[in-house]
Design brief:
Elements lengths: L3 E2 L6 E2 L5 E2 L11 H7 E3 L3 E4 L3 E10 L8 E9 L1 H9 L9 E4 L14 E5 L8 E4 L5 H8 L3 H11 L7
Parallel strand pairs: 3-7
Antiparallel strand pairs: 1-2, 4-5, 5-6, 6-7, 8-9, 9-10
The protein binds zinc ion (ZN).
């Protein structure tokens, strides 16, 4: 394990944590009082109004000079039939890849909402791997070309509470 002195918070960090989103963005458009009736949410899937289907996957970004990539747990939309194919075959790599719109906002990479993606199913209880369409969007460039370890830690700090010394 490589430790990393972080100029951002002045701490020494061990391994880079993955960050993830617990809910797809459209969830937040549903008024709080209506969520229980309209949303079916698990840690891996979300259905809104029996009409909109989302799955959670992992979008990997290579980190320069670092063997471990930076994983972001993001949500993408799925067509109903693909959603159910995945639900019925959660542990196989024999399905897909399936198209989906990115339904997580990661401001560190510009406007990421509704970028085009493909979900690659990996089987053996791993979450699907999310591949961005290879465009000139900052998020797509980052996935293609990688980011520095400093940048990855900066992003982690945007999402995690400050690391305490305990
Ligand atoms: Zn830090």
């Amino acid at each position: 394990m490589t430790s990393f002195f972080c100029a951002c918070c002045g701490e020494t960090h061990d391994s880079l944590p993955d960050i993830g989103f617990a809910k797809p963005e459209p969830y937040f458009d549903i008024p709080e009082a209506e969520r229980e009736a309209r949303v079916q949410l698990t840690s891996d899937t979300c259905i809104i109004d029996e009409e909109h289907y989302f799955i959670r996957g992992v979008l990997e970004i290579p980190v320069h000079q670092h063997e471990q990539s930076f994983g972001l747990g993001v949500w993408i939309s799925q067509k109903k039939e693909h959603f159910y194919t995945y639900l019925e075959n959660p542990d196989t790599a024999e399905i897909g890849p399936y198209f989906g719109w990115l339904c997580s906002r990661v401001p560190a990479f510009g406007d990421t909402y509704l970028l085009k993606t493909k979900a690659h199913f990996q089987g053996s209880t791993m979450r699907p791997s999310i591949e961005l369409e290879p465009t000139d969007e900052p998020f797509a460039i980052a996935q293609r070309e990688g980011i520095s370890l400093e940048r990855a830690w900066d992003i982690v700090h945007e999402y995690l509470p400050p690391i305490t010394k305990s």
